[in-house]
Amino acid sequence: MGDIRRRGAVVLGVTGLIAPLTLALGAAPAQAASCTTQAGPYQKQVEKFLGRPVDGRQSSTDCKAIQAFQNKHGIRPNIGYAGPVTWGVMDLMNKQKAVGSKPNKAGTCPTNKGRIACVNLTLQISWIQDGSRLVYGPVPVRTGRDGYETRTGLKKVYWRNIDHVSSIYDVPMPYSQFFDGGQAFHSAAVSMWNPPGSRGCVNMTKTAAKKYWSLLKTGDDVFVYGRKPGT
Predict the structure, then answer these.
(1) pLDDT tens across 33-44, in order?
(2) 0.70 exceeded by pTM
(3) Fold of 2-16+101-225
(4) Whether residue 186 lies in the annotated active site
């Protein structure tokens, strides 16, 4: 959790981003993870997602492709194994893509509030709408992990700080817009599919966070619903 030193201390939400540790002087660089020869339980699904031949057998090329995906999104262990975490990320990406330009097709996010930022925890996407008109998005987001869940319900943006830094973790939280007990939209320098998630905040790419900063203001509504996979 971070804090705002403004009109008293207010406990803030923070990202799951932890600054990487600096290697000790003289320490040897970390070795690349070995590639497994074992086929995982989601081998065929992962092969199809990556555009590999779908045969359910692990090849060295399959492993390298899976490992590259794991490295890109911070999935551990990163040994090229087609396990549930790797497939879970891919499956979520497929579901997000299927939403297209109609994120509020079911009408769950209120359309009678004017401008409102919506967060679908189940699909890990967010967008801004004005009535029923889509203003921006949907974009992938990274919300609270198990035990640090992003709280659901109707909220309002109550404080904004473009250069906020968490005082506890000393982690930058650019373009912070706080909407519930310290939980905020803000930019994070990690993949939006990096498991297991944030510590309550709604992480966004820098591009999305800057756009949200330009479109929202203090007092605007935020509606959070659903449940993040794994929480």
Answers:
(1) 899 999 999 999
(2) yes
(3) L,D-transpeptidase catalytic domain-like (2.40.440)
(4) yes
